[in-house]
Each structure stands twice: as C-alpha cells, then as structure tokens.
Amino acid sequence: MTWRRALESFLRQRLPAADAVRVEAAWHLPRGASNTTLALDLRVECEGTVSELPCVLRVQREHGLLAPYDVLREHRVLRALDRAGIPVPRPLWAAPRCDGIEAPFFLMLRVEGRSLPAFWYPSGGPELEAIAAQLAAIHALDWRRAGLGFLASADAPRDPLACDLAAWRTRAAARGLEGHPLLVALGEVLRRQRPRDLRLALLHGDPNPGNFLLRGEQVAAVVDWELAALGDPRSDLGFYAALQTLFFAPPAVPGVTPLSLAYEGVTGAPLGDLAYFEALGLYKLAIVMAGSGGWGGFFTARETIERRLCELLGPRWAA
Asked: Rounded distance, CA 246 to CA 295, Å?
C-alpha cells in the first residue's frame, strides 16, 4: 500500500460521514526539514458537496540533526497553542502509526504566507517588529493554564535551565556525547555563571525569522515547534544569536542581534546577560553539529564555537 492510499484510509476512519477522501496533490516543503514534511491538497466528498482541504503532513524520522524526534509531542504543543490563541497551523489528526505509514505522524492545516530569510531582514521595520512582538507574546503565555506543563523537566520542573536543557541532554546522550570535554566544560560554566533572574516561560526553541509566516506586515502563523521547551525567554534570543555566529557572522555585540533589539523595542524592557544566552545557544548547536554526519561536521564548527566562547565568557572560560 502506498503512503497516499494509507493516509486516505486513515482519514476515512476519522471522517466516517465522508463519501470519499483523496490526496489530490503532494509536494515536499523546504521548511521543517528535520522531519519529513509534505504539503497536501485533500479532496473530501460528502453528500454531493466537495471540500478542498490544504494540509501539511509531518512524518517522524528516526535519524537526523535533532534526533531523537517526537512529532506527537509537537502535535500536542500545537493543540495547546491553538486553544490558547497563538497563531499556529491548526492541528488535525495524529497517530503513532497506521497501516502503510510505519512511523508517528500528524496532519495540520496549511497556512499560506511568506517568511523572511533566516539571516536577512531590514534593520528594524514593521515586519521584524511584528515577529518580535509575536515572540514576546509566546514568552508571556501562561503555559501552565495552556496545558503545557508536560514540557517541564521531570527532574527539576521549576528550574529554567534544567527545563531548557532537558531535551538537549537527551540528544547528547543519543549521540554518546555526555562525556565530551567541550560539552562537559561548557555545561559546568553555564551552571556556575547562570544569571540570578532566570524565569520559566514558553520557548519556541528556534525563533529565526524563517519560522514566522507573514501576511503583509503581520504574523499569520508560527511554525516548526519541535524544539519547544520551557526556559528563560532570553534563551530563544541567544539561540538565534548562536545560529548567526555559526552560520552567518558573529554579532558585533555579544548576544545582540536585530531580533533582540526589536524585542527590546516592543517590550520596552532591556535584556541582560545576552552573552550568556548566546553561549547557551552554542552549547545546543555543538550537539547539533556533532550529529550532522558524524564528528567531521562538529570539528569543522568546533574552532568557531570555542573562539566565540572565549569572547562571550572570557579566555579562561573552560578553567
């Protein structure tokens, strides 16, 4: 059975009143590359009425940059956010498997919009302000009331740093990296130098501008929630600064990017300790790079990471 026929059979069970359900078209989407992500046009016929349903199918991969994956967790996050009024693609059905699709998957409605390139945007401007304002709204969400308490660390549910790093430590363990000198030394420094004003908030996990779909100058939807976690809001901004360091150019001021400046502008509150949070983002990216085709990818990035850590934490950061 092809995956199309398998999905149609699955949907007929979920839509028993429908006379027919067909996948009319399917194509791969460029974003959401960690898991298999397909755009679908569904045709649903019911008592002579035909409805077109634009959807996205996410199928879990076993291996990849951010493995181990959990698309059912992402679906659960989307359901909570949709109920809470955060603009996300509306989640539909999910399953751990079905006949013909032997991996966890979920369907959501497709949102049309455009996104800014990850490392290009006007300095300031209404689009960046809209993205920053939406990110601030995510951070301000009452995640307990929204039903997102399951994101907390089982070992230390009230510790922002432990909650933030829980999934990353799982990834490191899956790669056999727990004892790697760079990660061990950096982990100790991050624990020792943690800011005293850490607080728990919902994190997107990867708030680069490409994950915000725009219509005009407004955010229509925020996508790719596989890294959602709880932690200090500045962790999101630090992760973006770390991405910029590794894949574009290091921020001239540690931790400070056009996104963080726009965030300060829309919230009216200054952000402190951004150098620390960029270092926290580099800790995560070191784990990602170690999983990108083996140690070769990691060694290519390691010099950049270690050089930047000296700028962020001081020349003897590993001491």
From this structure: 16
